[in-house]
Amino acid sequence: MSAKTAEVVICGAGIAGIAAAYHLAVRRGITDVVLVDERPPLSLTSDKSAECYRNWWPGPGDSMVALMNRSIDLLEELARESGNVFRMNRRGYLFATADPACVPTFIERAEEAAALGAGAARIDGEYQPASADGFESERAGSDVITDHAVIRRHFPYIAEDTVALLHARRCGWFSGQQLGMYLLERARDKGVRLLEGRVERVDTTGGRVRDVAVSTSGGQQSISTPRFVNAGGPAVKSVGRLLGVDLPVFCERHAKFAFTDDLGAIPRHAPLLIWTDPVRLPWSKDEAAALSGSAEHRRLVDEIPAGVHGRPEGAGDSPIVLLIWTYDVEPMEPTFPISVDPAYPEILIRGMSRIVPALRGYFSRLPRGIVDGGYYTKTRENRLLAGPLPIEGAYVIGALSGYGLMSSNGAADLLADYIAERTLPRYAPAFRLDRYDDPAYRSLLDKWGDSGQL
């Protein structure tokens, strides 16, 4: 094995690239793999995630649920073998509404999810709360709760006017950094090499991958290889251009706010909390008048789309809370470091106070915290790409959107099946690039509906 050759070269050492290297080397026995990135592993956007996972996905079809179930199966296997080094839990996603008209929608979504393979729907059945830690004995499926007394008994910190909860159960979170480093260490133990550098060129003479040129601190080097994987994260489109392939993806900016919850507004045992109604931020009359008079800030008094969510962060008695609200979905070119609205922390605190009223205690003095973020790299219908490209030996694992950490093992498992020429799972066609060549699929795109993005 020469440093100038490889069976597979992977461009990108984010969670997608690392998972691909792990599944090739550890689970498929393809050990002569070079992982190329100009940055340290997991440092561009993979460490900016909310680190959550779910098998809760809408149709059409059950492909997303099937892939996510496979990915979660793999995460649970990794948790068991590692002693749960990445602290995986199954607290669930708790969707909440104060709109009685949304109650039938909650029931429909629970029943749809059950039909797609996410687990049984329990409508006002005997509710069993989730444990704060672990996942082995936890429920799957979902619980819809409309009994006000049950809501108050189990979730007294949620807004009093909440009329229904939907608790999706095979969901939770984990430490993405610990997961990624565990996968990387296992892969390197099997011979995967990490090369600090930038992929500058891919030789595809004759319509097949032949050679990859990488610029490093020591100069440019050439790696002869029959296979190249584009795992470029937010750069997946530009890496695709090196192959002469125009990938149908775009980027949306996202950010999160982490702060010390000194008031204990969000209990340490809480699940991921999601408000499903649009929100008008709670301002005083004077504040609203002042904001309305400013062209720059007028939007802060308008209704903001649904989806503000948050959760406790850290183990044990950690006082940290994460809040997220991706309401600005304008496509943009990725630039680093990202720019974030200075008002974002206050927007989050005020928005999240709609579901957790105790957060109002921070209105007079906002908590200090950290804002960071990255980009959701998405296809039009928000389904990832994992499979071959129209050049022999070229592959992609990308467009993992806002669900990269949760889907990376399922997507990498699928990609490794292609490269190792194994039997493919039935959901494989749903994630190939050439799905867009199918007229029936293109027609379906025009009436797609819910993309599954929180």
Please characterize this protein's 3D structure.
By secondary structure, this protein is an alpha/beta fold. It has helices at residues 15-27, 63-81, 103-116, 148-154, 176-189, 236-242, 285-292, 344-352, 404-419, 439-445, and strands at 8-11, 33-37, 52-54, 93-97, 121-123, 142-145, 164-168, 171-173, 193-196, 198-203, 211-216, 219-224, 228-230, 250-260, 272-275, 309-313, 320-324, 331-332, 369-378, 385-388, 394-398. Strands 4, 5, 6, 7, 14, 15, 16, 17, 18 and 19 form a 10-stranded mixed β-sheet that branches. α1 (15-27) links the parallel β1 (8-11) and β2 (33-37). The radius of gyration is 23 Å and the shape is globular. The N and C termini lie far apart (45 Å). The mean pLDDT is 96.
Can I get a quick summary?
This protein has helices spanning 15-27, 63-81, 103-116, 148-154, 176-189, 236-242, 285-292, 344-352, 404-419, 439-445, and strands at 8-11, 33-37, 52-54, 93-97, 121-123, 142-145, 164-168, 171-173, 193-196, 198-203, 211-216, 219-224, 228-230, 250-260, 272-275, 309-313, 320-324, 331-332, 369-378, 385-388, 394-398. Helices cover 25% and strands 23% of the residues.
CATH superfamily of the largest domain: FAD/NAD(P)-binding domain
In DSSP terms (H or I, runs of 4 or more residues), the helix count works out at 10
**Biggest β-sheet description:** 10 strands, mixed
- Gross morphology is globular
Write down the Rg.
Answer: 23 Å
Q: How many β-strand stretches?
A: 21
Mean pLDDT: 96
CATH architecture of the largest domain: 3-Layer(bba) Sandwich
Range of helix content: 25-40%
CATH topology (level 3) name of the largest domain: FAD/NAD(P)-binding domain
Q: Briefly note the structural class of the backbone.
A: alpha/beta
CATH class of the largest domain: Alpha Beta
Question: What separation lies between the terminal Cα atoms?
Answer: 45 Å
Q: Spans of 5+ residues with little confidence (pLDDT < 50)?
A: none
